[in-house]
């Protein structure tokens, strides 16, 4: 990664030939601009399922928005069912991406199709020296694994509602994510059951190790073992790109209050959540993308939407809902069989 950074200026001329002129100009700005103290992170919506499906075609859990805001970022909702050009426009206006957990199909859902377009843009930008982070949680982690591996390698695990301590690997000490965390926070994550797991499917260490594409792209930072003895990956990051994937939900500890074993509100769990948010936002602050105008920025920010109280319908205390129809689908088609919980 050090070589990747050091060579950015040298590659600017070649970049103008291999990338569009507009993209080259953005890279030059990114290389010369100081840290962005007004970062905006795009949170990907997904189709509504379970108790929320009658309310609207798509949603974002409010806890995800609060998590990003707690680190010092503003949030733009990225709706499903947009065109590639629309996703491209928003991508070059924001400074990072958040792929949340959820219940939709890993391959065929509108969430998955949007994630594929956006991930391709992330890879293209970073290859051209245009720093841009993406962060995935639970289903978001599965999506990031699928997009690299090109196949679904998930395994059923007994992890639906459980809090676990993290088993740190040797590589975690050199990781971008954890290397600057306070020792007290790392000790808490390693010794206390603070990380919330709300999933039926996991990326097992066995399947990860057998896939060359995943091994070459991701560094495993932490693992866990379910009650049946299956060891699965709980945190990983890319070797050469700002791509981060978590099986657990740091945003839920401060902001979700359902009566679930996975939701831990201890001091250590709350501190860890805010350190995770601060790291993600610090990565987004390295991106120089911006909206074309103040008016355009304000039009896209989530402040124009109001969260709805949903605790009586679903796990989430609040959620944001979006009315735009999903391209090529009816409202009745917006609740596919869940592949991730």
Automatic annotation (TrEMBL):
> Which InterPro entries does the record associate with it?
Class_I_gatase-like, Pept_C26_g-glut_hydrolase, Peptidase_C26
Which is a GO BP term held by this UniProt record?
tetrahydrofolylpolyglutamate metabolic process
The alphabetical list of record keywords is: Hydrolase, Secreted, Signal
Catalytic activity annotated for this protein?
(6S)-5,6,7,8-tetrahydrofolyl-(gamma-L-Glu)(n) + (n-1) H2O = (6S)-5,6,7,8-tetrahydrofolate + (n-1) L-glutamate
Signal peptide limits: 1-24
Q: Which GO terms describe its molecular function?
A: gamma-glutamyl-peptidase activity
What does the similarity note say? Belongs to the peptidase C26 family.
What protein name is recorded for this chain? Answer: folate gamma-glutamyl hydrolase
Recorded source organism is: Petromyzon marinus
- The gene name reads LOC116940755
């Amino acid at each position: 990664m050090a070589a990747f950074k050091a060579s950015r200026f040298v590659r600017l001329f070649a970049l103008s030939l291999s990338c569009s002129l507009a993209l080259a100009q953005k890279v030059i700005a990114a290389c010369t601009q100081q840290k962005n103290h007004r970062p905006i992170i795009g949170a990907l919506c997904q189709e509504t399922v379970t108790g929320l499906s009658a309310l609207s075609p798509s949603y974002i859990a409010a806890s995800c928005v609060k998590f990003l805001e707690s680190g010092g970022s503003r949030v733009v909702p990225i709706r499903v069912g947009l065109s590639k050009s629309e996703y491209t426009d928003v991508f070059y206006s924001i400074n990072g991406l958040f792929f949340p957990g959820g219940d939709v199909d890993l391959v065929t859902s509108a969430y998955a199709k949007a994630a594929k377009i956006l991930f391709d843009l992330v890879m293209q930008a970073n290859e051209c020296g245009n720093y841009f982070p993406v962060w995935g949680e639970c289903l978001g982690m599965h999506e990031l694994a699928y997009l690299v591996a090109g196949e679904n390698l998930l395994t059923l695990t007994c992890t639906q509602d459980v809090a676990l301590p993290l088993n740190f690997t040797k590589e975690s000490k050199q990781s971008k994510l954890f290397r600057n965390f306070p020792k007290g926070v790392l000790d808490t994550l390693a010794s206390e059951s603070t990380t919330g797991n709300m999933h039926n499917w996991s990326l097992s260490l066995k399947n990860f190790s057998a896939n060359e594409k995943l091994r070459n792209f991701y560094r495993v930072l932490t693992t866990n073992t379910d009650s049946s003895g299956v060891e699965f990956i709980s945190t990983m990051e890319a070797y050469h790109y700002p791509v981060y994937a978590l099986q657990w939900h740091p945003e839920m500890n401060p902001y979700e209050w359902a009566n679930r074993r996975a939701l831990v509100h201890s001091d250590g769990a709350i501190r860890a959540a805010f350190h995770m948010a601060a790291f993600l936002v610090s990565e987004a602050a390295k991106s120089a993308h911006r909206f074309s105008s103040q008016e355009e920025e304000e039009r896209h920010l989530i402040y124009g939407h109001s969260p709805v109280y949903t605790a009586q319908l679903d796990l989430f205390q609040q959620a944001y809902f979006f009315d735009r129809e999903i391209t090529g689908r009816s409202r009745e088609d917006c609740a596919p069989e869940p592949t991730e919980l």
